[in-house]
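Subject: complex prediction, re-run

Hi both,

The earlier run crashed halfway through, so I resubmitted it with identical inputs.
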Amino acid sequence: MAIRWSWASPRIALIPALTVTAVAFLGAICWTIWISFTRSRRFPDYAINLAEWTRQYERLFRDNAWETALKNVLILAIGSALAIVFGFILAAMIEREKRGEGFFRTLFLYPLAVSFIVTGIVWRWMFNPDLGIQNFLRGLGWESANFNWLADPQTAMYGIILASIWHGLGFYMALMLAGLKSINSEIWSAARLDGVSFWRLYIEIIIPMLKFTFLTCAILLSLGVVKTYDIVLAMTGGGPGTSTWTPAYFVINSYAARGNIGYASSAAVMMLLMTAALFLPLVLATAWQARRREAMAQ
Amino acid sequence: MTMTAQTASLATPVSKSLRRKRIRGSSIAVLVFLAMWAAFVSIPLYVVIVTSFKTMDQVALGQVFALPTEWTFEPWRKAWSEVCAGMTCEGVSHGFWVSMKILFPSLLISIGISSVTGYALALWKIRWAGTFLFILFLCAFVPFQIIMIPLVVLISSLGIFGTIWAVAIVHSVLAMPLLTLIFRNFYKDVPEELINAAIMDCGSFWRIFFEIILPMSANIMIVVLILMITTVWNDYLIGLVFGGVGTQPMTVILANTVITSFGEVQYNVDMAAALLTAIPPLIVYFAVGKFFVQGITAGAIKG
Amino acid sequence: MPEIEFNNIVKRFGRVTVLEDLNLQVDDGEFLVLLGPSGCGKTTLLNMLAGLQEVTGGSIVIGGRDVTDLDPKDRGLAMVFQSYALYPTKTVRGNLKFGLSVQKLDRAEIERRVAWAANLLQIDKLLDRKPAQLSGGQRQRVAIGRALVKNVDVFLFDEPLSNLDAKLRTEMRLEIKQLHQELEKTIVFVTHDQVEAMTMASRIAVMNGGVIQQIATPDEIYERPANLFVAQFIGSPAMNTLKATVERADGSVSAVHAPTGARIDLSAYSFSAAPKDGDAVIVGLRPEHFSIGCNGHADAGAYFSLPVRYTEKTGSDVTAFLDSGDGGLIAVRFDHKHHHVPKMGEMVEIHFPKDRFDIFDAASEKRI
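This time it finished cleanly. Structure:
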């Protein structure tokens, strides 16, 4: 029997992608979930003791460092959300004031091209108590200026948040700007003719029109926050103590420093669950958006 | 003809003075606010640049914003070729070449697989394409940590753990879902008739790809290239976990230099090293910024 | 007193001059249509009237008040946009009310106006829907309603019918005209569609290249186009134009069309400036004014016998394109009930009545 190449070729071409997906993603996820139920330490041990299969998770929930990591991820999410807020405000201003659009857009976006490691190192330098901003402000006469945030467990997360906002601001601004530009220009004209005030226009018309953009930004931000690792490492190395640990940091630490694969896997599975919880709304929102678009087209 | 005749007759001088463009108060407020944010965004870069040109004596004075009293390239030279990362003291230059060596195979493998996959899924009728795309969509958001340990096991069993190839392959694997979606979204806008005509003319999957589709893909290739170059270059974790001694990329060398350095801290050298690491993606950004924006938004908005 | 005055308007975008020293007056209660091809400056003119674009020079007066420096909201006008520009996140009611809520009217008055407009436009049943749930025609009504509730003296329409299909367009055309007759407000309506202009306008301003070519009633525009551009822009199929040379002999005036050798009798034409012997002119002949057949007409001013290149049938009408001998075509429109449809290549005899010519100077292209 002859092979129909027009049928077979595309399927053959898909083999690498299918293999990668099946092995490196689906297979690997299953592997991690499996291992999280075992007593594996430095090397994988595939036997599951049914009597105590939740052992790693029980330990995890008792672990103070994990609790700190969860708390930090929340603080980080709330704090970094400011990047969306300011990103929107900046986008709105750039869109309104056409002057210098290219300049401001280019400027606000460049930190995104810089790696988290470099970002962390740069901000660590800014926060340096003896040689950074604090010293500069004290030199100007503000004696009580305290920017030694990274040394204090209470404020170290805020330092990381500031650096994250610096890094991500332009990204959210770019997304918001794209959203604003997609709004029909006649809407703005109509509002001007109606004499609608600036605030009412944004609160009642523009922001509701951009709700899908806001949702996208929020979900991308949360997904990024869950994965936060590099910037913590570069700024505080998790410290002081474990005060700036994040779930991602926790996983790497359990694997690399403690050499406990089983424990690291259980934390990784928790990360997957968090991602899934954040991800579900995105999938639903996409489906909802598609349905709405269909309804509009009719 | 009509127009010239008419305008000629109307070319009487306009006596009314032309009004000037008004600049409103709100405009000024907006520009001031934007300028403040611009300062917030650019101050760290400024501080790092001036610090990297200062002597350690001036750095110790603690005037972060002051320009160097004496411009010196010494920190840059040290950062490039002398500074110590852990045990080895080769500067970040070694890391730079490793990052380059990682970059090219990563680009080749990831873009090769993703473009072909995106093309097959978008333009050839495969019944389960929708399902596969949905799975890829989910995979694109999977945190790296969840698949990291099994990948270590897998790469070790292939016997390439700790080599440049290990890092490049993991980069390609991780980028594959997202890039495939980007390519697929680009190719699905190719008119169906074009593909049907091509199938009638020659019919070969590969010939259509290489002779028709690939030459049409210049724009999306640039977008994807920029996305991949910045991702791979800026990555830390994959390089840390999968790179061995001597095959660690620049970011890892930089982090080791700055974070785990012993003895007297040379801030000016640290800053020069950080800048050296940041320069390649910044060059890409400032050279083709327009595509960069497209790249990151393509990465963000899918479906 | 004119309701709207444009005085010496200049508009430049950077170095590009779009409008130069333009003057236009719109009377109270008038339905003025700004008609012209795209890029002729008509939308710019409307936007400057609305205050959405600033003028580079000159002044705009509405109702005796200089509004040149006023914000759009203070000019006392309402506008209907091409894409309707309905607020997508608000219901129809919300859309109608939104502009009013700014004006600090009491609630009962707002409700009264919304109810009045909704009733007038028959959108009462749609008040709680979102724009996305409306058809094109319904959206159009809501957009008009949003302008109506503002109770202003001047309404601006920016190509509002261009997004509708042919049938709806005809309906809305009639409705807008009825609204105008009922409300007796001043309307400035921008379009590139000559049928819209001819059917709705009380006056038409034909624009081209940033210059107003002619302002007149639709009849005047059709019967006595001021120049060749207006003559060819109005009418479908477009007016035929023949280059001819004036011949004056024993008090009679005629023009000779060299390629066909036809002599065109201009004795019944009322010249505004009598041409000299040998002047080059352009003779305009509307395709619908020809009569076809071999019987000579007493009032015929021109006679041709030409071969048919091709014919187009549109329902009751036929347009035959005849070879004018110099590579051009002469379009002739007639009712096919009264004459058989000529075949390709067939010689056809056509006559043109002597009182229907339009004569333009060949150089200036202006009517003479």
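The domain at 71-249 of chain A is CATH 1.10.3720.10 (MetI-like fold).

- K.
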